[in-house]
C-alpha cells in the first residue's frame, strides 16, 4: 500500500531507514510507477566457459547473467569475446549481447567471474574501479567483482534525468574453507558500506558455504541489512527451497532493503550440470533510487529601516564630494 497524503517539501535519505522508502513511494504515486524497468538477473556456477558460451550468453537476453568459476585466463577471455562478437553478428539488432570480464585466472585456471548483458542493459554497466584494499585482494584472486549499472527510467521530478542506478556484486567462495569465505564477505560488506548511498544492491554467486557457516550472512539477516532472496521467496511467494548442489544450498542471492523493493519474482532451474541457476526478476521503480536531503532556498534576510534612513541611502551624494560614503550609519570616512 502507498501513502496518499501530501509528500513533504524535503527529500530524505537514510542508509538503513525504511521511512525514506515510504517518502519515495509517496512522491511517485500516480506519476510513473507504471514506467518501472523490468529485467532479470541470473546467477550460475558454470564450471568453465569453454564449451558453454552460447548457453551462458543466451540466458542474458532478458537482463544480466552473472557467472562464477569461468576458469578463463586471458587467452580464454579473448577467444570467448571473439565468439560472442560472431554470435552478435548472427543475432537480430535487438538481441545484441555484451560481456564484462573479471580478473583473468592464473595458470591454475580456477575461479573466475564474468557478467553477460542483454539488450536492456548493454552499454549501461561498468566494472567498479574504486575498490577498498581488502576487497581488491579478493578481486585479484578472481573471487569478487562489483558492477555499477545506470539505466534509463522515468523522470522523478522536473529536473531529474531519470537515471536508474543499482549495484551488482558477484562472488565465488573458497571451497572447503568457510572462514576464508567469511573474510571475503567482510571485505564485501566494507565495500558496500563505502558506497554511501541507498541504491539497490544485489549480491549473487556461489558462496561455497551455507548461511549458518558464515557469520557475516547471519549478521546481515539479524540486522536486516540484506535479505536472502531465496528464503524470502519461500516464505512469502510460496516458492520451493532446497539444495542448489550436492545437498547444500550454497548458491545464493541477497538484496539490501531498496533492492528488495524491486524484487518481483524468483525461481531456480537446472541449466548447468553441477549447480542450480538462480533467476531473479526485478522492476526497478523510481522510489528505489538514492535521494539526498534537499531544502528550498532560504529567503534573503531583510532589514527594517526607518523611512528617512531609507531615503538617505538612495539620495545623491553631496555636491563637490567624490565617492561619497552612502552608509546610513556614520563610519570612519564620514567623521
Characterization of the model:
The chain has 335 residues and is α+β, with helices and mostly antiparallel strands. The chain is 27% helix and 23% strand. The protein has a six-stranded mixed sheet with strand order 3-4-2-1-12-11, with helices on both faces. A hairpin with a 7-residue loop joins strand 11 and strand 12 (277-284).
Q: List low-confidence stretches.
A: 1-17, 20-34, 292-296
Q: Which shape, going by the Cα principal axes? A: globular
Strand and helix order: HEHEHEEEHEEHEHEHEHEEH
Count every beta strand, where a strand is a DSSP E run of 2 or more residues. 12
Please provide a brief summary of the model.
The protein is of the alpha+beta class and 335 residues long. It is 27% helix and 23% strand.
Keywords:
23% strand; 12 strands; 335 residues; alpha+beta; single chain; six-stranded mixed beta sheet; 27% helix
Secondary-structure blueprint:
Layout: H1 18-28, E1 37-45, H2 53-58, E2 63-68, H3 74-90, E3 98-101, E4 113-117, E5 125-127, H4 133-140, E6 144-152, E7 163-172, H5 178-195, E8 201-206, H6 215-223, E9 226-228, H7 229-236, E10 251-256, H8 257-262, E11 263-269, E12 277-284, H9 307-313
Parallel strand pairs: 1-2, 7-8
Antiparallel strand pairs: 1-12, 2-4, 3-4, 5-6, 6-7, 8-10, 9-10, 11-12
Amino acid at each position: 500500500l502507498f501513502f496518499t497524503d501530501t509528500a513533504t517539501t524535503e527529500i530524505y535519505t537514510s542508509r538503513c531507514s525504511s521511512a525514506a522508502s515510504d517518502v519515495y513511494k509517496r512522491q511517485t504515486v500516480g506519476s510513473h510507477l507504471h514506467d518501472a524497468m523490468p529485467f532479470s538477473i541470473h546467477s550460475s556456477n558454470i564450471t568453465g566457459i569453454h564449451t558453454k558460451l552460447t548457453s551462458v550468453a543466451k540466458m542474458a537476453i532478458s537482463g544480466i547473467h552473472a557467472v562464477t568459476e569461468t576458469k578463463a585466463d586471458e587467452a580464454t577471455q579473448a577467444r570467448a569475446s571473439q565468439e560472442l562478437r560472431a554470435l552478435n553478428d548472427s543475432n537480430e539488432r535487438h538481441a545484441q549481447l555484451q560481456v564484462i570480464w573479471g580478473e583473468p585466472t592464473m595458470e591454475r585456471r580456477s575461479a573466475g567471474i564474468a557478467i553477460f548483458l542483454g539488450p536492456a542493459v548493454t552499454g549501461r554497466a561498468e566494472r567498479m574501479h574504486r575498490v577498498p584494499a581488502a576487497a581488491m585482494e579478493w578481486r585479484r584472486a578472481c573471487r569478487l567483482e562489483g558492477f555499477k549499472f545506470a539505466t534509463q527510467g522515468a523522470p522523478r521530478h522536473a529536473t531529474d534525468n531519470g537515471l536508474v542506478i543499482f549495484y551488482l556484486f558477484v562472488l565465488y567462495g573458497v571451497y572447503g574453507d568457510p572462514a576464508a569465505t567469511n573474510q571475503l564477505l567482510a571485505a564485501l560488506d566494507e565495500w558496500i558500506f563505502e558506497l554511501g548511498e541507498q541504491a539497490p544492491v544485489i549480491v549473487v554467486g556461489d558462496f561455497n558455504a551455507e548461511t549458518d557457516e558464515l557469520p557475516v550472512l547471519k549478521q546481515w539477516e539479524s540486522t536486516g541489512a540484506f535479505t536472502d532472496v531465496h528464503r524470502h521467496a519461500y516464505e512469502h511467494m510460496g516458492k520451493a527451497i532446497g539444495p542448489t548442489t550436492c545437498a547444500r544450498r550454497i548458491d545464493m542471492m541477497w538484496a539490501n532493503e531498496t533492492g528488495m523493493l524491486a524484487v518481483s519474482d524468483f525461481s531456480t532451474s537446472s541449466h548447468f550440470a553441477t549447480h542450480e541457476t538462480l533467476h531473479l526478476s526485478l522492476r526497478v521503480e523510481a522510489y528505489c533510487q538514492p535521494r539526498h536531503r534537499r531544502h528550498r532556498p532560504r529567503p534573503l534576510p531583510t532589514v527594517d529601516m526607518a523611512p528617512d534612513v531609507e531615503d538617505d541611502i538612495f539620495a545623491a551624494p553631496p555636491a563637490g564630494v567624490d565617492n561619497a560614503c552612502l552608509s546610513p550609519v556614520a563610519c570612519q570616512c564620514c567623521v
